[in-house]
């Protein structure tokens, strides 16, 4: 067995061994049932500990590539490309905790399916500087409650930023939240009651599905196309069900990466007016784009659109800070619920974000993120094409690609990914009812990692 372990590499020996064993098995085209070298023999050949070999073998057993036979050793298992999908439909809010627990149990895994940029891409120095600035400021910014609508300094900065992207509102129409998920929760509890019907995109944001299900709100699924929601299906559902709201992710849609076209946007607003429907536009990836794009909130003359965004994706997931924009009367109701449910948001967090906006630190940070993501997007699309993957659409920005490898189901892809120390999420996670799917959400910010490269290459 010709294996080469690099002891100077930052990659652990166990990971190297597991990857090279997988490659060796594929290159040798070993038939199911072939016995691998014993633990003692392989450890001696490679000059490593037996525990290292055991862990590498165990990883391949966990992926389904090998099987362990008590007292006999390790044997090649059958890796089928057309077997039934065995991923479990995601029907509740436990998905995040299960996924996080699995990630913590396997700390070496590359989170190719995650929804954030790598830590090394974050503006950590600028955040630390803003924290120090706030810490040296007025003592009330460290100790006092935040006003119901949010910190005035932050809302002033948000007001300026909204004007720059064509959303003309007054400061009284802006409410700060603890991220976009908090904003969605406030809206659901204020606007809806059990039994109400709402339109949601499919595939879409799983946490929204969980939230609506928790509040016993019925979801009407609208397929997402490369240009936005399927208008024919949407119009038919509007006529038959008279839903209360439409939830939409206009720009760099999660998980498909697609963006709303002007034609679809104008028709959505027409349908909302005809059927008296409120649109909730989730624009948490707004700052990944610099320039003219199609947002419903910028085209909304009748104020039928509730707009929400967040700094979690571009700044920090730990600094929970988002905001929503709506009519003053609705903002007042949302602010009251916000205070009743949690006595407001974090004054300290909002001071930090406001400082980054005012100092230009945030602007510089996203200005560095955009071209970096664009470069990784172009490379990832080229590599997926080379390896035979099909993409839903070619995004012109953002960090997500929705893709699948024809001939492979999720169960087989998942085993192969784990063997390469890569974590992928089932497509069922992004379906309102948890229906099995062979599509995967790929975060291009992680696609140039050698583990992701190995995974893609081995699907050729």
TrEMBL record:
Gene3D superfamilies: Aspartate Aminotransferase, domain 1, Type I PLP-dependent aspartate aminotransferase-like (Major domain), Winged helix-like DNA-binding domain superfamily/Winged helix DNA-binding domain. GO terms for molecular function: DNA binding; DNA-binding transcription factor activity; pyridoxal phosphate binding; transaminase activity. PROSITE patterns: HTH_GNTR. Keywords: Aminotransferase, DNA-binding, Pyridoxal phosphate, Transcription, Transcription regulation, Transferase. It comes from the Bacteria. Residues 11-79 form the HTH gntR-type domain. SUPFAM superfamilies: PLP-dependent transferases, Winged helix' DNA-binding domain. In the C-terminal section; belongs to the class-I pyridoxal-phosphate-dependent aminotransferase family. This is PLP-dependent aminotransferase family protein. It comes from Pseudomonas auratipiscis. The lineage of its organism: Bacteria, Pseudomonadati, Pseudomonadota, Gammaproteobacteria, Pseudomonadales.
